[in-house]
Amino acid sequence: MDIECYRLLRLILTNQNITGGITIFDENRLKLLKNKMSIILPSHLVDLHNAFLLMDEAPLECDGHTMIISNALVKACIPHERILGTVRGQHNGFCLYPHLWLMLDGYIIDYRLRMWVNLSDGTSVSDTAPHGIFPANSDDINYLYEKHKVVPAKLLDKVLLSFISDGFSDRLTIPESTIDWFKRHSHDIPEIKN
What we know:
Blueprint: H1 3-13, H2 24-40, H3 43-53, H4 62-75, E1 81-89, E2 95-104, E3 107-110, H5 113-121, H6 123-126, E4 132-135, E5 143-150, H7 158-164, H8 168-171, H9 176-184
């Protein structure tokens, strides 16, 4: 995915100001990016990704971030797994253990790997790290996710979640389109492993 387009989309979805406004060129690139996302992700996951982008700036590491998202998914009755494991860069020697991410319907949800790659190797390397929701079996991500075990998030009180996330958890709402999709397909999906 084009990193520049992704950043532009993120700014728009999080209602942040864009210096100098959006040009016609940017609008066209944004349309292409949205089309690319729709091809890569099913629509119910695109909507979910857009909701999770609101949590992207939350002052949380991978454990807290996955816990907040897992709590929201459990409350919406959306089956998923919270995974503890190792992530390795296939071409840059990066290795991170322990790391937590979510698995949902054959997709990885990880909004914190890029943060760790940036701290370790800088922005030139972290810009290529996967970020968001992406197919678990994709060779395009250039990072290998190795599952060690499932570590369910403890369901926490809404006030506590808000406190540890500086209020970001209050903004997280699972889209109705995603909830409806999982309700319609619940017979195809194994039980929740939050």
